[in-house]
Amino acid sequence: MSLDDLVTALEQSHLAAWVSSSPLILGALSGFHLIGFTLVVGTALVSGLHMMGVAFADRPSREVIAIAVRVMVAGIALSVLTGIVQVSPRAGAALANWIFVAKMTLLAGAIAAQVVVPRFAARADAGTVFELRVWSVVTTILWLAVGVMGAAFILLE
Ligand code: HEM
């Protein structure tokens, strides 16, 4: 199945018809999408501030990052799921839009960068704290950029 087939199948699905059937559905999905975004950026900020020694400074990094990652995974799952449902009636148009494509590229980059953080955290006691700080800032910026591109997609679409 090619990408075109997948896009056509998504646009003609019952899911797409359901989303298009009422603006309230899109509004609710958008609300849950934003809750997901808040969970992701919130936990990225908390773990970043922890690595700066500002938040939960008395707790071991391994512990703080492990909890943050769990909440973040829930946020990513929520925003990816609601994002796919929201875009289903106009998947083709979205994929032809550079802002949406940039957002998906940033999303892939943010997830890839995020996967590295717990690995640093596991080694944090062995003197890799500086790398962890840099990486926390990088991931937070990437997540914020995903959100900015999400908002830009609505405003400039
Ligand atoms: C496969 C993944 C995703 C898809 C397909 C997707 C799709 C979309 C779409 C279609 C919109 C516009 C909604 C509208 O017209 O009202 C949007 C908005 C937005 N997206 Fe995503 N998104 C995804 C993942 C994410 C992630 C992971 C984040 C951040 C962590 C995010 C953050 C936002 C924000 C902040 C907005 C603007 C506010 C809103 O409408 O909720 N998106 N996204």
**Distance N to C terminus:** 28 Å
Radius of gyration: 18 Å
Oligomer: single chain
Helix content: over 70%
Question: How many domains, as an integer?
Answer: 1
Using the alpha-carbon principal axes, give the shape: elongated
The total of beta strands comes to 0
Overall pLDDT score:
90
How would you characterize the largest beta sheet?
Answer: none
Number of helices: 7
The H/E string reads HHHHHHH
Bound molecules: protoporphyrin IX containing FE
Strand content: under 5%
Low-confidence stretches: none
Coarse structural class: mainly alpha
In short:
By secondary structure, the chain is an all-alpha fold.
Protein architecture, described:
By secondary structure, the protein is mostly helical. The chain has one domain. Helix content is 83%, strand content 0%. It is built from seven helices and no strands. The chain has helices at residues 3-11, 14-20, 23-51, 61-87, 91-95, 98-122, 129-156. α3 (23-51) runs antiparallel to α7 and α4 packs antiparallel against α6 (98-122). 27% of the residues are buried. The model has no long low-confidence stretch (mean pLDDT 90). The structure holds protoporphyrin IX containing FE. Protoporphyrin IX containing FE binds at residues 26, 30, 33-34, 37, 40, 76, 79-80, 83-84, 86-87, 107, 143, 146-147, 150-151, 153-154.
